[in-house]
Design goal:
The chain has 233 residues and is mostly beta strands. It is built from two helices and 15 strands. The strands form three sheets. Strands 2, 3, 8, 9, 11, 12 and 14 form a seven-stranded antiparallel sheet that branches. Strands 1, 4, 7, 10, 13 and 15 form a six-stranded antiparallel sheet that branches. The chain is globular and about 45 Å long.
């Protein structure tokens, strides 16, 4: 009886092993949707164009510059510019816009627009920004989003916003200076997406927006942006 019991038991466990092994081979893990979260370090502005970022300078009168690579070099009189918030090889690894966006006395309206992002309520994005240490010129930046489509229409005047009519954040709207003005060291801002009826594709825009700015204006110096992070929850 023992012999046959052992044979029966062996056959039973062998069958169980084959069954489980067969199930394991046929099992296919569910494919997870790719994460829509991403981080932009602004290592080189040239690469931003390849990634789908867009730039529009509506400053009036318009100047020679728009958003460009950060500036941090050492000279005889000390460092020029300010170092990036986060970088691997060079303190230049951020993006900035300044008074040269306009000419003479100007209303500055220089836009940097993200690639198309699929957004839903609860998603978040953050970034760091600052101006020069000790700056006595007022700076301002708005953060806006286009909820109408996934285009880059910002109008064509210094005061137009086109389809970027939703204002998410306005940094230093009163154009104050000093400690109550634009941050003079890297400061993190975070925004949570809300109010969307359904998930949709859109873009986020950073608008350097300063009245009475430009090389001859009483306002505007320069602002930097670094480490933009979009988190899809």
């Amino acid at each position: 009886m023992k012999k046959y019991s052992l044979l029966f038991s062996g056959a039973f466990f062998l069958g169980l092993f084959v069954l489980l092994y067969g199930c394991e081979k046929d099992y296919v893990a569910p494919v997870e949707a790719p994460s829509k979260s991403f981080t932009e370090h602004f290592d080189t502005v040239v690469n931003l164009y390849n990634k789908g970022w867009a730039f529009v300078n509506n400053s009036k009168p318009i100047g020679a510059a728009t958003w460009q690579q950060g500036l941090y070099t050492s000279g005889k009189l000390g460092p020029e510019g300010f170092p990036a918030y986060e970088y691997k090889a060079s303190g230049d690894e951020y993006v900035f816009a300044g008074y040269a966006s306009g000419n003479d006395v100007a209303t500055l309206s220089s836009w940097m627009i993200t690639p198309v992002i699929e957004m839903k309520n609860g998603d978040k994005f953050s970034f760091y920004t600052r101006t020069y240490t000790g700056s006595t010129y007022a700076d301002r930046m708005q953060v806006r989003t286009n909820l109408a489509d996934d285009g880059t229409d910002v109008g064509n005047t210094a005061t137009s916003v086109g389809k970027f009519s939703t204002l998410l954040l306005d940094i230093n709207p009163s154009l104050a200076t000093g400690s109550t003005g634009y941050p003079q060291s890297w400061k993190k801002y975070e925004v949570t997406i809300s109010g969307l009826p359904t998930p949709q594709k859109g873009r986020i825009a950073f608008r350097y927006f300063v009245t009475d700015g430009g090389p001859s204006g009483t306002n505007s110096n320069a602002i930097g942006i670094d480490e933009f992070h979009f988190e899809s929850l």
